[in-house]
Write a structure and sequence with these properties.
Blueprint: E1 2-6, H1 10-21, E2 25-29, H2 33-40, H3 51-61, E3 64-67, H4 70-76, E4 79-82, H5 98-110, E5 116-119, H6 127-134, E6 138-141, H7 151-156, E7 161-164, H8 168-177, H9 179-183, E8 188-191, H10 193-224, H11 228-236, H12 257-271, H13 276-299, E9 308-312, H14 327-337, E10 341-345, H15 350-356, E11 361-362, H16 366-370, E12 375-378, H17 383-386, H18 390-396, E13 401-404, H19 411-416, E14 420-423
Parallel strand pairs: 1-2, 1-4, 2-3, 4-5, 5-6, 7-8, 9-10, 9-12, 10-11, 12-13, 13-14
Helix pairs in contact: 1-3, 4-5, 10-12, 10-13, 12-13, 13-14
The chain binds uridine-5'-diphosphate-xylopyranose.
Length: 434
């Protein structure tokens, strides 16, 4: 089929490349000519394993092309996927639909009469119906559930497909688009518009709630002298609960979960069906960042002013260079504001971090960040940080104090190498007084 993908950010570029991989002729559309030029020459402006290879292969074969012209897109596509961003609004917690509305209007103005406009962006429930009522071209909603770092895999081999459709014609078109994925046995759920939109926001709300649940247990463990790591392991053995998304730590960040749960709570309020617990999910998440700052102050004798702090990690999670709402950088910036001399190291996210937080110090390696540090904060769980040798690290720092904000470092190894080791949700050793 001939498909267009409007918006070539993280979601759109991945979707476009994966649709080409499924055998379609794909035209990616974006208003940013620099992005289009980069993609057309096979360059991907963000870190996503497997995506550069896929884009290079399909642009070379001509099956995947990019343009800034909606006119060209309208003439080309049978199905148009809208993959533009829905950031948080500046004046409220709600989602900013400017880009979605603009993309639908622009493609609807040029699309063929029998084309299908398919929204993939995460939107407040009710958006698909409003757009369908606004435009003459038929609308469908097909939410995505991809995780950064696994975006290609999650698109080609998703856990499920969700089609929000208002006609059998729309369902048939989407079945044709995803024919190889469906043939591989992927479950398909077809639904009305509001249900399809809600699947996405509800899934993100559930995941965020699961993380905040274990982080709330971490708060209780800290107060009661328990160990949240052991608690999570024991809970996870119950099949009904499961081990996934029960990693306690400095909490969730990124371009999706934080803004999506706020937008969902905002929309639910508008609908008169409030989801008050989501505000608490958000609050628990933010309190974990406060806790790291508090531990840092405690380990520096009450104030971080003048202390040299090494922050390991800048990306919101490993295998990503995305720093949007990164807990690691949030903590780093707050300590900097309190007068600490902060040096950050991250294997992939240095350029992005430098652009957004130019006043923080940056090191070229973890070892360089540790040199002369009074305190080390481990805030993004890159595998290489787990491999740091505590004895070698001790020889680099000024004072061997570390906070494990991700609960993955081996406490015994660090303490036996002479470190004062604290972790979120773990007992604070007697006499630490924090
Ligand atoms: C998420 C959803 O997983 C995905 O389905 C949706 O489409 C977009 O949002 P992503 O933001 O890529 O994907 O990251 P994810 O792997 O879900 O992690 C989100 C955040 O939660 C990260 O900051 C991660 O470090 C944190 N996290 C995750 C925890 O703190 N504990 C966990 O147990 C799991």
């Amino acid at each position: 089929m001939r498909l267009t993908v409007i918006g070539t950010g993280y979601l759109g570029a991945t979707h476009a490349a994966c649709m080409a991989e499924l055998g379609h002729e794909v035209l990616g559309v974006d208003v940013d000519p620099d992005k289009i030029a980069a993609l057309q020459s096979g360059r991907v402006p963000f870190h996503e394993p497997g995506l550069p290879e896929l884009i290079a292969r399909h642009t070379a074969s001509g099956r995947l092309r990019f343009t800034t012209s909606y006119e060209e897109a309208g003439a080309f596509g049978e199905v148009h996927f809208v993959c533009v961003g829905t950031p948080q609004r500046a004046d409220s917690d709600g989602a900013d639909l400017t880009y979605v509305d603009a993309a639908f209007a622009a493609i609807a103005a040029h699309a063929a009469e029998d084309a299908l406009l398919v929204g993939k962006s995460t939107v407040p429930v009710g958006t698909a119906r409003r757009l369908a009522d606004t435009h003459d071209t038929e609308v469908a909603w097909n939410p995505e559930f991809l995780r950064e770092g696994f975006a290609v895999e999650d698109t080609l081999r998703p856990d499920r497909l969700v089609f929000g459709v208002a006609s059998s014609r729309a369902e048939a078109a989407l079945r044709e688009v995803y024919a190889p994925v469906l043939a591989a046995g992927t479950p398909l759920v077809t639904a009305d518009f509001p249900t399809a939109e809600l699947v996405k926001t509800a899934a993100n709300a559930f995941l965020a709630t699961k993380i905040s649940f274990i982080n709330a247990m971490a708060e209780v463990c800290e107060a009661a002298g328990g160990d949240v790591g052991i608690l999570a392991e024991a809970l996870g053995h119950d099949d009904r609960i499961g081990r996934k998304f029960l990693r306690a730590g400095v909490g969730f960040g990124g371009g999706c979960l934080p803004k999506d749960i706020r937008a969902f709570a905002h929309r639910a309020d508008e609908l008169g069906a409030p989801l008050r617990f989501l505000r608490e999910v958000d609050a628990i998440n933010m309190r974990r960042r406060d806790r790291v700052v508090e531990l840092a102050r405690g380990l520096c004798g009450g104030a971080v002013l003048g202390a040299r702090v090494a922050v390991l990690g800048a990306a919101f999670k490993p295998d990503s260079d995305d720093i949007r709402d990164s807990p690691a950088l949030n903590v780093a910036a707050r300590l900097k504001l309190d007068g600490a001399d902060v040096t950050v190291y991250d294997p992939e996210a240095m350029d992005n971090a430098r652009k957004t937080f130019p006043l923080l110090g940056y090191a070229m390696s973890a070892e360089e960040a540790l040199l002369g540090a009074d305190l080390v904060l481990h805030l993004t769980e890159w595998p290489q940080f787990r491999e740091i040798d505590p004895a070698r690290a001790r020889s680099l720092v000024s004072r061997p104090h570390i906070v494990d904000g991700r609960g993955v470092l081996d406490a015994d190894r660090w303490t036996s190498a002479g470190w004062r080791f604290l972790a979120l949700g773990r007992p604070v050793p007697a006499g630490e007084g924090i």
